[in-house]
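Reply to dn_fold:

You asked what the input looked like. This is it:
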Amino acid sequence: MKTLFTALSLAWLCCLSCAKSHAAEAERYLIQPGDLVTVTIWKEPELQADLLVRPDGGVSFPLAGELMAAGHTVEDLRASVQERLKEYIPDAVVTVGVKAIGGNRIYVLGKVNRPGEFAFSQPLDVMQALSMAGGATPFASLNDVLILRRARGRQTAIPFRYGEVEKGKALEQNILLLSGDTVVVP
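and this is what came back:
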């Protein structure tokens, strides 16, 4: 009975640790093109706006001008707006929030049952993406899957061998996908 209690306690602590880890990741959400962010300035109702992050990653805000939002956290954007407004409103209290997540999308194509574009709002790995696409068709070459990722204008191909991950081996292959990643199942 004591070992069962110890095992359950350890499992509970592990779950708490995972929950804290996911909470930390959620706090570090990076704004993406297509997201809708809300910016408000306390006691300045005319300086309140919902801003759609453009495909180039920028937003425009009165008095602050053009700001880069994509790839930055909500806190980064808040600090940028506050800094830009300092000249006009020295002690501005700026609040920024993500109103709608519209930019986090991955693509799954090839020999899967439901290829297409998939939106996500929490961390998503390769196995989960394949599941969202309805799994592989019978003729898929599951040990030759590639994740195509574009970073800084350069595209890379990351190999994924489903058979190994399915057996619980080489789990480091089951990477978290980034917005814009494409999973190709030949």
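The two ends are 50 Å apart (CA to CA).
Hope that clears it up.
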